[in-house]
Amino acid sequence: MNKIRTLVPMTLILMLMMVSPIAAQDVFPVTIEHKFGSTTITEQPQRVVSIGYTEQDFLLALGVQPVAVRYWYGDENDAIFPWADNYVEGDQPIVLNMPYGSLNYEAILELEPDLISAVTSGITQEEYEFLSTIAPTIAQTDDYIDFGMPWQDITLLIGQAVGKSAEAEALVADVEGQFAAVRAANPQFADHTVAVSFWSEDTYGYYTDEDSRGRFFVDLGFSMPEELMEVAGDSFYAYISEERMDLIDQDLIAIVNLQFIPGGQEELEAQPLFSQLAAVQAGHVIYFDETAENALGFSSPLSLSYALAAALPQLEAMFPSSDQSESMACEEGFRAFAGTCIPENPERVFTVTDSDLDALLALGIGPIGITNGRGQ
Question: What DSSP assignment string belongs to 113-146?
């Protein structure tokens, strides 16, 4: 993992060096196509107001510091999360506290923007038209459901709007290269299915591959059963009943809202409905700390590297590659373990330590014998 994280930034530096002459050739006016029509930007923006929930990351990654950003959630009162801290120069952007469906047009107007970036905002046609009377406004394309636009497309669209097309292309190539490196090193991921799930005391559900969190694991090589998308329909998520826990019980379960579960992992694993799932019993559940969960939710060129660093060690431990696991061949009915071949389903187990005895009994296995502690 360290090798990947060390090499990738150098790759980005080299790519930016190669494309920097092209970046200077971005010309205005430029017209951006989006779900509400098109927006013409006559000059390179100098005062960008970001009203999307994650757009600050994309702008900062392109070297554009927004005048103001929109608060989403969490303890980051400045709306700039740890992975983006080093990209802010001077004063922090002004934070606009505007809940979903509530825009403070007066506050936006007072900021005198020359571009309003609303690609990850989920704004309506009416909101777009009002914002456009303040400044040129860009939104997501109509190729995806609201909040379903891939980070690559967001990067390229915003890059075009701010005159940083070449830098945007380099960013996309860099981050995609990180995922490609992980897939190449872990081809075994492609043999497993995943459900990206959220839980509460009495609500259960999952995100599809139309959501950035679901797409993250698909981009790592895991597959998401088509039935999950069919049940969700036109949405990027679905709530399910206790009778449809099979939808969540895939080879891998990714829990992406642990910070919102009172009691956290311990409380979740104590829930009978959760603990009985095959993936849980196999230890194939991946958890994230609060910052990594936020990074996964942002799914930006800046946050994805952070999310990868949190996810990869867990995933490689659960699903080791052939290079990481035993390479020895065993006869039929046996499997490789710790450098030797053991039966697939041992029936007569002898243990030599009390700790092993405790572990076997906890698993419901009664050994045929145990030493007296002195090897006898």
Answer: -SEEE-TTS---HHHHHHHHTTS-EE---TTS-T
